[in-house]
Write a structure and sequence with these properties.
The complex is a heterodimer of chains A (82) and B (145).
Chain A: E1 2-6, H1 8-14, E2 18-21, H2 28-36, H3 40-45, E3 53-56, E4 59-61, E5 72-76
Parallel strand pairs in A: 1-5
Antiparallel strand pairs in A: 1-2, 3-4, 3-5
Chain B: E1 2-6, H1 12-22, E2 28-35, E3 42-49, H2 53-68, E4 73-79, E5 81-83, E6 88-96, H3 99-116, E7 119-125, E8 128-131, H4 136-143
Parallel strand pairs in B: 1-4
Antiparallel strand pairs in B: 2-6, 3-5, 3-7, 4-6, 7-8
Classes of the chains: A alpha+beta (82), B alpha+beta (145).
């Protein structure tokens, strides 16, 4: 069981800020493929992963990063702070 | 070093005065303030963030700046929530023995906060809302460090 968080337009497209996901995905990319297959709103949010960033347990990571031991995954667009 | 992520407005003058008073061994304090630009028809700027990661990311960036420029101290305040044009979004302050280090560290902090701290801005106008897109220049700005 993994906690998945969405921010900004990813959150708006999927329609929830966070959810618990039952998954055996080995990597972030595998998890994205699983989510994409769920419903159109996920497919829309994950259509182009080059437009997305991912954080694992609150640290930036790559889409090929392994999920073993990870409790929290967050998906969001490039950040616009400052 | 202090990092504050808050929805409340901050008192720029009081923050700078307190920072300057508390700092030991510095000959220079540089401050930067980011303000919601009153771009055509903007009624509000909504700032979303990732509680927990935001504080961690900013603290990491600030610690890097302190180490790299041997700063006497650093301060970062960043707001979230709904802000009106003209309101201060954020500020950084850096203190160093000499001004060059304080200026450079402040620029480094700003460049990194812009694209490595988990904030997202949405512009609200009478005609509608739009997420602010990250700019290639912001990513390019990191390469000089």
């Amino acid at each position: 069981m993994i906690e998945v968080l969405y921010f900004a337009w990813v959150r708006e497209r999927i329609g929830v800020p966070r959810e618990r996901v039952e998954t055996t995905a080995a990597t972030v990319a595998d998890l994205v493929a699983e989510l994409r297959g769920r419903e159109d709103r996920y497919a829309a949010a994950f259509a182009d992963t080059s437009a997305l960033r991912v954080a694992l347990d609150q640290g930036l990571a790559d889409f090929d990063a392994p999920l073993a031991g990870v409790r929290e995954v967050a998906f969001f667009p490039p950040m616009t702070g400052g | 070093m202090r990092v504050a992520v808050q929805s409340a407005a901050f008192d720029l003058g009081a923050e700078v005065a307190a920072f300057t008073d508390s700092v030991i061994g510095a000959g220079a304090v540089v401050t930067f303030t980011g303000i919601v630009r009153p771009d055509g028809g903007l009624t509000a700027m909504e700032i979303e963030h990732y509680p927990g990661m935001t504080e961690k990311a900013i603290s990491d960036i600030a610690a890097q700046a302190v180490a790299r420029w041997a700063l006497a101290d650093a301060l970062v305040i960043h707001r979230y929530g709904s802000l009106k044009p003209g309101e201060a979004i954020m500020m950084v302050a850096t203190a160093a023995p000499h001004r060059a280090d304080a200026f450079q560290a402040a620029e480094f902090l700003m460049d990194y906060l812009k694209s490595r701290a988990p904030f997202w801005k949405k512009e609200i106008r009478a005609q509608g809302e739009a997420w602010v897109a990250a700019r290639d220049e912001d990513e390019a700005a990191l390469r000089r460090w």
